[in-house]
Amino acid sequence: RVFANRRGTMSTAPSRDGTKSNPYRIDAALFAPVAPGPVTFGQIPSTTLPVSVMGGSPPAMYTVMPLAAASEFPVDHGTGTGKDYPAGYSATASLVAGKERAVFVEMPSGEQQQETTGMAMPVKLAHTVGLVVAVAIVVLVGAVLADGRSIAQLKHASELPRLTDYSLKESGLDYRADELLGTSYGVGLHHDSSGNRWNQVYAGATLQKYVQELGLHQVIAAVPSVIATDGLKHPAYFLSCTSLVNTGLTAVSFAIIAEFLAIFMMFFHLATLIDLNPLAKNGTYTTMGKAISVLVWLVLSVGFLVVCCLGIAAFYSTWYCDNPFVPSINISEHFDWTWGWPIANIGCFAAMAAFFAQFFVTSTNPSFAPAKRQIGSAVLALLVGVVVGMVACVSTAAGVGQFDEAPPVDPSVNPCKGQKPYHAGPGDKYFANVECMKDGVVAVLEQAGADVSPGYKGGMDAGEWRVPITERYNQTDLCAVNVHWHLGAEHRSSGQFDESGKGPSGDGYKERLGHRCHFYDEADPKFTTPYDWKHCKDMVVGETYEVHWPHSAAGACGTEWQFQTPFYDGVFCNDGVVNILTPLNTYKKIGVQSQTYTIVNDESYYHDNLMNGMIVDEKFGVDMTMYTGSTTGTSRDNDVCSRFAPITWQVDRRCHMISASSFDKMCEMMKMQKDDMSDDLHAHGSRETVADHLTANNQVGNP
Questions:
Q1: pTM of the full predicted structure?
Q2: Which of 30, 458, 525, 594 allows an S-S link to 97, with CB 3.0 to 4.6 Å?
Q3: Residue burial 91-130, b: 16+ Cβ < 10 Å; e: rest
């Protein structure tokens, strides 16, 4: 029981149970005694005592309530229980501070202390959570809708499979997604990186319509032009993947609804916190206010969860499209998630937090005081909601086969077949042979095979970047992908294989003959005795052959498809490893070993494995030249050059004798490969040695 004296200080008197509370004082400048008068109680928010209270807080059984009217109350009224007082309360004092009037009341025995003037801290926190979550949803969902790459981004080319139907490869349709859409292409929730929405396309009509109007092969021929004009975007609509388009539009609809609801709740909670919400006075909801708040947050929670599940279904499902080029697509094989889907997950759990805070911590009862039990219930419910959301997402992923074992790879399908590139960009025919000179200026990169004589330097400046690999290829990430040989030597090594070399007559040769070694002696039977070839074709004892082992970091290294004919298929088997630009790495990822032999019919020169690379021992592969050049062959000379450049060459400068049986053993091993190498069982023609002005100046000899 409390009373005020005329000096403006507050003191305590014994309560009904005879106990006394700890004394405390209130600054007389804030409170003054008032004359007796009637008093009424109104539905006014509770407040706490001002900070000027000295000596500690009031006893826990007391609270301060402002009066509804400018009436006054006797300093000591006893136990008045008139109709103007809350049931069970005993009014004991009325004080005035300026125009504000307050009554001290004693709460009934055993009743929980309740602030009745001011928003309880847990309630304020619940509305603050709602406001923060609403603002975050408005900002982040808006950003997701605005970003054309917010949902998915194309994978790196090295991870991309072919997108187009394999059955049309022979017809000229052979593209990855990055080749059709561009390496930086992405998909947003509302539109893609080109700005087209799910139901828009630059081409003006679907692919199926074009095929119907123009014919399959005419459309295939026009693909490069369509790529150049971005006509394939948005691809989901262009390819007539109707179910995928509908899924995307549904997700967009949910996002727009979430944006408007979040804007509404942002103002709703802000108005509540500053006591301007007619549906929530002093943090106490009306029945309608509570229903609106709980319902909207429930809708947002469920909506975000649906979008999360839609995203998983869209990403991992196989979608079927009404066109012959890309009859089906699994988004996860071609795209990576970006930041939009994690935002949907965060939005889902944040909306759940706001929902459970509104459900458990707010009330329509003015005397409701959130306790630990209500707060604990909200936290526990949120944890349960998170678990339910995770189960829903995992179940969706399982339902679309995300956790199924990958289908077995057909062992009869050659993954490297047809990988030889013809274009650097759509339809540009970059890799076709070109004139070496234009208007008297060298128009190509360095060529091969060059002069590898000790001390020789080419006349073309290779710059700072184009440095050959000097380690043995087996010490790098390159592996041999082919073996073939040329009639005579394409390279020149003075005194070893050059224009002064000797050999059989060469009558009847169908291929161009290159340089020869100096070993041939027609009086020595090992150079003239015929050999019974069982596997190699059109080979001649005593002749010179330069053997090449193309190596590549993009090969099917360590698999049964490692060796390929033509060698280009093996060199470029895996996409995205070799770049002709951005950044240029061909001279780091492609290399050729070269070793030149004169074949003899003498088993003392036998070597059992010419298949996997050149011979390296105390005599073989010790006197080397390394430089950067190009692919070779008789389709090139010093007027027409190769565009497959620059690549590293490691050339043995010395000529070696080797038995015919060694070569035949190599051919036998070639015939045992998974790919058909029969086109390489004979000697290919040799191109003429590269002119100085087309030869790089970066030759490196043995250390």
A1: 0.70
A2: 30
A3: bbbbbbeeeebbbbbbbeeeeeeebbebbbebbeebbebb
